[in-house]
Write a structure and sequence with these properties.
With 392 residues, the chain is of the alpha/beta class. 42% of the residues lie in helices and 13% in strands. The protein has two domains: 137 residues, Aspartate Aminotransferase, domain 1, CATH 3.90.1150; 241 residues, 3-Layer(aba) Sandwich (Aspartate Aminotransferase, domain 2). The chain starts with a helix and ends with a helix.
């Protein structure tokens, strides 16, 4: 066990970065343990051990499908949302290119796994069109549909933004894209446990899910592919997961993913109400802090907020909060270690300086009122101290 981990546990830390990685849920842990201790067969093998692994895998698929209101065969288990995004965008774009469609349309605030995959496809002969958003981070449905036209290869629009919590009009746009036979990919990674998630009603042709966002194990995720949606496989070498994700499945991770997903969806209303209340307590504690402004709408994803803290650097705030035993984020997780400000905030009209003065707070299971009050008080103290140092 590393010294860093020992310190993190010993200091009774407050974790407010659930949108990046949520703790493994008890339901996910309990479901995985039998697979880790006793079941070790390859799900593709015909012997007893293999059949047991296959049964566990397919039971997990059925459990996840029930939680998401889709068919089991419409779910492809992956290692996470990034892999799912790559499979979906490459697969749809390459399929539609065979009929002369080579334009990819997406919002300017998509998660890096979607934006970067689209950008790469732009180097492979595809046209990439990013639809702008307003100051709230919201895309205009009419503008998005106009960009798609009647001949886009694939479109991508997230359900809820990972920085501002802004909810996107996926259900409004999806039926019109289907009429034009344009497949729509939806990043729904942050929805389980926070938003009602019915993939049948949502209307997207594909959807991304990430286990660690809602209590599943790291390295787990899924890609929903609506029946009838054709994808050209990106990877070769096996027939697993409908041929879209070949290779031996991590059965334990899939089982943990499904169990955590089931629990998150089952308790969604109660979780969302609790997360919203906890965030409200935190924000109330910041009411007296001048120059603290919430970015994006107040009625967005429950339990998530990005704050602009004027005249301080978000990175400095994050480091000082960490030293006080409180974990929060700056920008998106995939940008960690980069000095560049968030592309999403820049797309919303922020200057580079303003974008660099933000932190993100995301609450989840395990947080309570006392933690939120302490975190707010500590944040106020740190911001005031950093401002005083800057003016010396």
């Amino acid at each position: 066990m590393s010294r860093t981990y020992d310190v993190a546990v010993a200091r009774n830390r407050i974790y407010l970065d659930h949108a990046a990685m949520a703790p493994l849920s008890e339901a996910g842990r309990a479901a995985m343990l039998p697979l880790l201790d006793a079941t070790y067969g390859n799900a593709g093998s015909p012997h007893l051990e293999g059949r047991a692994a296959k049964d566990a895998l397919e039971d997990a698929r059925s459990q996840a499908a029930k939680a998401l209101q889709c068919r089991p065969r419409e779910l492809v288990f992956t290692s996470g949302a990034t892999e799912a995004a790559t499979i979906a965008l490459h697969g749809a774009a390459r399929t539609m290119a065979t009929v002369g469609r080579r334009r990819i349309v997406l919002s300017a605030v998509e998660y890096p796994s979607v934006l970067d995959t689209a950008t790469f496809l732009g180097t492979q002969g595809f046209e990439v069109v990013t639809v702008p958003v307003d100051a709230r981070g919201q895309v205009d449905p009419a503008e998005f549909l106009e960009a798609a036209g009647d001949d886009a290869a694939v479109a991508a629009l997230m359900l809820a933004n990972h920085e501002t919590g802004t909810l996107m009009p996926v259900a409004e746009i999806a039926p019109q894209l289907r009429e034009r036979r344009i497949p729509l990919l939806c990043d729904a990674a942050l929805a389980p446990g926070r938003l009602p998630l019915d993939l049948r009603a949502l209307g997207a042709d594909m959807a991304l899910l990430s286990g660690p966002k809602f209590g599943g194990p790291p390295g787990s995720g899924a890609l929903f592919v609506r029946r009838g949606t054709r994808l050209t496989p990106l990877l070769q070498g096996g027939v697993q997961e409908e041929g879209l994700r070949p290779g031996t499945e991590n059965v334990a991770a899939c089982v943990g993913f499904a169990a955590a997903l089931h629990e998150a969806c089952r308790s969604q209303a109660a979780r969302a109400a609790n997360y919203a209340e906890l965030l409200a307590i935190f924000l109330d504690g910041l009411a007296g802090l001048d120059g603290c402004v919430r970015v994006g709408p107040e009625d967005g994803l429950p339990g998530l907020a990005t704050l602009e803290l004027r005249d301080v650097e978000g990175e400095a705030v994050m480091i000082n909060m960490d030293l006080e035993g409180i974990a929060l984020a700056t920008g998106s997780t995939c940008a960690l270690g980069s000095s560049d400000p968030s592309p999403g905030l820049l797309a919303m009209g922020f200057s580079r300086r303003r974008a660099s003065s933000t932190v993100r707070v995301s609450v989840g299971e395990g947080n309570d009122r006392d933690q939120m009050e302490r975190a707010a008080s500590t944040l106020c103290t740190i911001v005031l101290r950093l401002r005083s140092l800057a003016h010396r």
